[in-house]
Specification:
The chain is 27% helix and 36% strand. It is built from five helices and seven strands; from the N terminus they run βαααβββαβαββ. Strands 1-2-3-4-5-7-6 form a seven-stranded mixed β-sheet, sandwiched between helices. The mean pLDDT is 95. Residues 3-162 form the N-acetyltransferase domain. GO terms for molecular function: acyltransferase activity, transferring groups other than amino-acyl groups. It holds the Pfam family Acetyltransf_1. This is Acetyltransferase (GNAT) family protein.
Length: 168
């Protein structure tokens, strides 16, 4: 597999929109089936210096995406929120793992982040296992936090801490 991980580009909007609209991907994100390519383009255009998104490209097509958003408060600049998704037909092939390695390297070694947090649907066992393999811990549950398949569902709050040795 000749996988390329690179920063997102505006020209990726079509592939990202298709991925976000896939039923299995949408089930575990906040995406809606009515999202348009223009919506995705608007999101990409609105990215600022606090947003860092990487995509996995395979044979010219975006098959995965991971991003971190730095928290804006001066007292939280060491923290960020992470999101990741992989096209349904490419899940289980190591793409998510590769994206996590790259985005966490960026967070740890370039952005010097200490805390990375994320939310994951409580029934997404594969994602929870992936996050735990990278040191994420469950911090709590947001009850009835999202609507999934016409029902209210819980989200798990997870976080990973990377404290440089000079601060321990």
């Amino acid at each position: 597999m000749n996988l390329l991980i690179r920063p997102v580009r505006l020209s990726d909007a079509q592939d990202i929109n298709e991925m976000r609209r896939q039923e299995e991907v949408r089930a575990h994100t906040l995406a809606l089936p009515t999202e348009t390519v223009e919506f995705t383009e608007g999101f990409l255009r609105s990215m600022g210096s606090d947003d860092h998104i990487l995509v996995s490209e395979l044979e010219g097509k975006v098959v995965g995406m991971a991003g971190i958003h730095l928290l804006k408060s001066v007292r939280q600049r060491h923290s960020s929120f992470l999101g990741i998704m992989v096209r349904t037909e490419y899940q289980g092939q190591g793409i998510g793992k590769n994206l996590m390695e790259k985005i966490l390297d960026l967070a740890d070694n370039w952005l010097m982040l200490v805390r990375i947090e994320l939310d994951v649907t409580a029934d997404n066992e594969k994602a929870i296992s992936l996050y735990q393999s990278f040191g994420f811990e469950i911090e709590g549950t947001k009850k009835y936090a999202i609507i999934k398949d016409g029902k209210y569902a819980d989200l798990l709050m997870m976080a990973r801490y990377h404290i440089p040795t000079q601060f321990k």
